[in-house]
Structures are given as C-alpha cells and as structure tokens.
C-alpha cells in the first residue's frame, strides 16, 4: 500500500518560484509539509514525490526518480488506452458479427455475458492477487491473458470459442482498469484530479480511435484481423509494464520513485472485511457499475440503433468515435469547470446535461443531430468517472484505498458487460428502439446514487 501523500509533493521541479515550493516537499517519513493545494500540473509530476536532502534541509526529487515516475505514469496510460480501445471496438463490429455467425441480438449479446463473468470474477479476486502477487506481476499476467484471447478472435474461430475468449478479455481488462486507478489513487490520496482526468482521457482516446479502425475492418472479408491491431497494442503495453514496474509490488514501485514504505496496519482478511463492510465503497462501486454501463451500452449499440431506426449507412460506424472523442475531450477540457463548481456538485450538472441529450437522441429523427448529441453525451459523461475515483481516494481510509478503489473500478468493468447484454436481450424482444429508454432510466438512477455518496471522510460509516 502506498503511503498517504498530498499532491503538493508532486510539484513541478522546474518551477521558478522557489518561495512557493519551500515547505511543500515531503519529509523523510513521507509526510507533507505546508499547503495541500489541488494538483494542477502535468502528469509527469507523479515523480515529484521523491526525496533527497537539499542545502536548506528540504527534500527534492532526483532526476532518476523523476524519470522512473514518468515511466510508471506512462505505463498506466498505456493500460488505460488498451482498455478504451477494447471497449470502443465492438460497436461497429456487432452488425458484421451477426451477419457472419447468423445470430440475433440475444445470441450476440452472449459476448457481454461472458465478458461480464470474467469482469465480476476479476472484481472478486483483484484485492487478493494484488496483495499476494504484487501490482507489477498482476498487470503483466492480465495483459498476457488478453493477448491469448485476441489471438483466438483474430482467427475468426467458431462462435462458441469466439465468445469464450471474451471471458479472458473481461477478466484481464478489469485488472488493467482497476490496477491503473488503484496505483494512482494510492500515491495521490484524493489530490490527483488532473492526473486522473488525463489518465481517463487516454482511455477516451483509445475508445475514440478504435471505431475508426474497426469500421474499416467490418467492411472487409478479413474482418477479424482487427484483433491483430489489439494484439500489437497489448505487446507495446506489456513492454511498458515490464520496464516501468519490473514485476514488483506497489511498495517496491513506490520506493523506486522515492516514496517511503507503506504501512500495513491489518491483514489481508481484515482489509477484505473492512472494505466490504463500508457502505460508501458499495455505493461508489454501484455508481461505477451504472456509469460505465451507460457509456458502453451507447458505444456498443448506437451503430445498430442509427442503421435500423435512422436508416444510416456504413459510415454510421464512426458515431462511437464521436462519443468516445467527447469522453476524452470532456475529461480534460472540463477540469476547470469541475473545480469552479466543485467536483461533487458538478456531477449533478453533468448528469442532467447527459439526461437532456439522451432524450434528444431518443426523439429527434435525424442522423446528423443524433451523432452530434451522442458526441456531447460523451463530453459530459467524460469527467464523472475520474472525479468519482479521485473522490474515493480522498474519503476512504488510506490503508483501504487499494482494496476500495480496486473494487469500485472492477465493478465499472462489470457494468461495461452487463448493461450492453441487457440492452441486447431487451432489443431481441422489442427492437433496438429500447436503447435510449433504458439509458435514460439508468442516468436517472445514476443521479440518485451520487446523491447518497458521502461528501467527506467524516461522514463514512463502516
């Protein structure tokens, strides 16, 4: 477990204002002196939590530790890019998969069921494996598991095997997503809203780029070769993970960038019990479950929706790129708005904006208008998850951040599988027109769940 640190320990080492930095460097036991101002700087400042003694007795980062910290952050971004790429790919491919394997909405939705099974199992085992094997080894194993699945899918294997491969994607993907969030939350403790915004913006970048590629492959005879692109991206990610974390646990990774060793205050079983007894953890896990379900349901089924109900052509496959491009843009561009209004209050504003846009897509009979509204849905959906994750890191007890954030993020991965399946199952009976009534209802539920989330650590009751 990484120690409790303020984001001011990550101040830019090239800042010319020495007077502002003085008193804000970490002490030799990893405590922070001075102000606890919000982080507003570049993500490479993750490395700024290193300590060597200067002439005035303050602690300053060393160049080697800064480079190591930047490499670690870059590896986290690679993992999130792959997670976004995976989530954005399936939407444009679904009509082609149905055509090739001669299956309907309900049967093709088994992809989401199997993926959900893997994600839920990943949710239940993440904390144990994270503690026993260490972060560096867990993320490498997750990447290898997903590589095996993509090899099977690239070969266009029979449908039962094709679907089964999504179990490994769901399981491994939940670890990459959870691990990245846990690592950053543990070293930031609620003071990394900018870094979370950029990290999840990279997820949006991957999810935006993948439909551009998969739409092209969906029109080719070798449509399944799109998974070779996934495989190449995972190889790059795997190399980054090995170079950055070297199969080490989070404690050793923290020492590499100058953080003091984490304190272990309880056994793994005791932490499991404490995490699962905390109402706030389950509230935020449910929020993540519904939120990611909305995001991926729209991304997965919007192409089918537009083709069937708005009579869109093959270029409709690019609409998910608008959704996930908006997601990426919102996570970065709306950071000042979120801080101005207040990160907890602004979630309500974003949810209401999403709700209005979903109603517009539901009722406006225009391909162009629907595509524009979907892009704006992405913009306002975007900041919610990083804000929620940063909020969790700020209100959970420090020794429970890894377990709590891991559980929350893993259930987000489960939501990415459950709700697209529910959408497909309903569509098999009522038609794809059921997509937006469902997501409107889920968005209203999201508003209610967030209203129940505590504002501060003092309000938490185990």
UniProtKB/TrEMBL annotation:
> Pfam families recorded for this chain?
MFS_1 (PF07690)
Task: Point out the coiled-coil segments of this chain.
Answer: none
Q: Which residues cross the membrane?
A: 69-85, 105-130, 137-159, 165-184, 196-213, 225-245, 280-305, 317-334, 346-362, 368-388, 400-422, 434-453
Which UniProt keywords are present, listed alphabetically?
Answer: Membrane, Transmembrane, Transmembrane helix, Transport
Regions of biased composition (Basic and acidic residues) lie at 35-45
The similarity annotation says: Belongs to the major facilitator superfamily.
Q: What is this protein called?
A: MFS general substrate transporter
* Origin species: Trametes coccinea (strain BRFM310) (Pycnoporus coccineus)
């Amino acid at each position: 477990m990484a120690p409790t640190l303020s984001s001011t320990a990550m101040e830019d080492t090239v800042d010319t204002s020495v007077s502002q930095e003085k008193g804000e460097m970490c002490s030799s036991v990893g405590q922070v002196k001075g102000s606890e101002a919000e982080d507003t700087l570049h993500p490479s400042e993750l490395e700024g939590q290193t300590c060597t003694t200067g002439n005035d007795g303050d602690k300053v980062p060393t160049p080697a530790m800064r480079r190591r910290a930047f490499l670690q952050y870059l590896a986290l971004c690679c993992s999130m890019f792959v997670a976004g790429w995976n989530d954005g790919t399936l939407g444009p491919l679904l009509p082609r998969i149905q055509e090739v394997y001669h299956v309907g909405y309900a049967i093709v939705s088994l992809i989401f069921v199997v993926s959900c099974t893997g994600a839920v199992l990943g949710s239940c085992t993440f904390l144990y494996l994270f503690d026993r094997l260490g972060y560096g080894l867990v993320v490498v194993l997750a990447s290898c598991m997903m590589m095996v699945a993509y090899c099977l899918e690239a070969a266009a294997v029979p449908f039962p095997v094709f679907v089964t491969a999504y179990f490994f994607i769901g399981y491994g993907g939940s670890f990459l997503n959870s691990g990245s969030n846990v690592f950053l939350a543990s070293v930031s403790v609620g003071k990394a809203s900018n870094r979370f915004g950029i990290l999840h913006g990279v997820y949006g970048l991957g999810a935006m780029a993948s439909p551009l590629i998969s739409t092209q492959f969906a029109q080719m005879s070798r449509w399944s070769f799109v998974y070779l692109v996934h495989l190449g991206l995972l190889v790059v990610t795997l190399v980054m993970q090995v170079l950055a974390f070297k199969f080490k646990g989070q404690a050793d990774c923290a020492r590499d960038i100058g953080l003091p060793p984490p304190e272990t205050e309880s056994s793994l079983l005791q932490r499991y019990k404490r995490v699962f007894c905390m109402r706030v953890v389950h509230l935020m896990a449910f929020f993540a479950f519904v939120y990611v379900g909305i995001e991926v349901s729209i991304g997965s089924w919007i192409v089918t929706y537009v083709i069937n109900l708005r009579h869109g052509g093959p270029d409709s496959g690019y609409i998910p790129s608008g959704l996930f491009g908006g997601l990426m843009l919102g996570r970065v561009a709306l950071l000042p708005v979120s801080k101005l209004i207040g990160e907890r209050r602004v979630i309500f504003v974003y949810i209401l904006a999403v709700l209005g846009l979903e109603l517009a897509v539901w009722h406006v009979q225009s391909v162009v208008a629907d595509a524009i509204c979907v892009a704006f849905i992405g913009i306002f959906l975007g900041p919610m998850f990083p804000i929620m994750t940063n909020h969790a890191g700020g209100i959970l007890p420090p020794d429970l951040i890894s377990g709590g954030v891991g559980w929350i993020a893993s259930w987000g991965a489960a939501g990415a599988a459950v709700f697209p399946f529910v959408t497909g199952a309903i569509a098999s009976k009522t038609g794809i027109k059921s997509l937006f009534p469902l997501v409107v209802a889920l968005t209203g539920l999201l508003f209610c769940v967030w209203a129940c989330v505590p504002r501060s650590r003092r309000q938490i009751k185990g």
